[in-house]
Specification:
242 residues; alpha/beta; TIM Barrel; three-stranded parallel beta sheet; two-stranded parallel sheet; 9 strands; 40% helix; 12% strand
Length: 242
Amino acid sequence: MQTIRADIVGSLLRPPWLLKAQQDLAAGTMSAADFKAIEDRAVDEAVGLQEEAGLEVVTDGEVRRQSFQSQMTAAVDGFGECPLEAFVWGDWHGDEEVGDFSQERPATLGAVKKLTRRRHLSVDELTYLRGRTNRIPKVTLPSPGLWANFWSPQHSRQSYPTLDHFLGDVTDILRDEVAELVRLGATYIQLDAPHYALLIDPKTRSFYESQGWGLDRWLTQGIEMDNAVMGDFPGVTFGFHL
């Protein structure tokens, strides 16, 4: 018998008042405590929306994150400069109202020293979410392979001579994160791996291959890293977002 689930992949649109609060915090016109209260309210509304829709699995809408994968750069030192453009560069195509958008990859992007974790990535997200719902809380984490974008032959070689060295440390950090989430009671964890589907696009595939791995290696060693992160945790459901 098949079990079919319907749940939020991850990110929900941030409400205008949260975006304004983020700007105020960055400008120094709002305290961290006041911002945290607004951020918590955004999570509460995201949870309420999913519960009202009847979903058995809920996320926090990823509203605390700059990007769906940015909790890594927020919690780990060594990535160097990580502006929003680091996560959204490329060519984007919208409808007639939205239009198209193109953003160059930041020239300074690339890890500049050995990665050092200052805190866990998503433990606080899980703790708060679990206290706000009696549904199944889902935590989302980025696939290790996504971080190829943050290795640079120009900026990273002193600390990480090859992409393999860099992604090895990324995998270790993510594997430790999963172990801690499971220790705290997480039963549903999702790995976000949209780069696999993007390999179909010749332009995107060219970039990933320029980092040092050919297509076959992305589909073998890349998947091996994902399996290493997920590990062996009986009773835990792992989702895989393509």
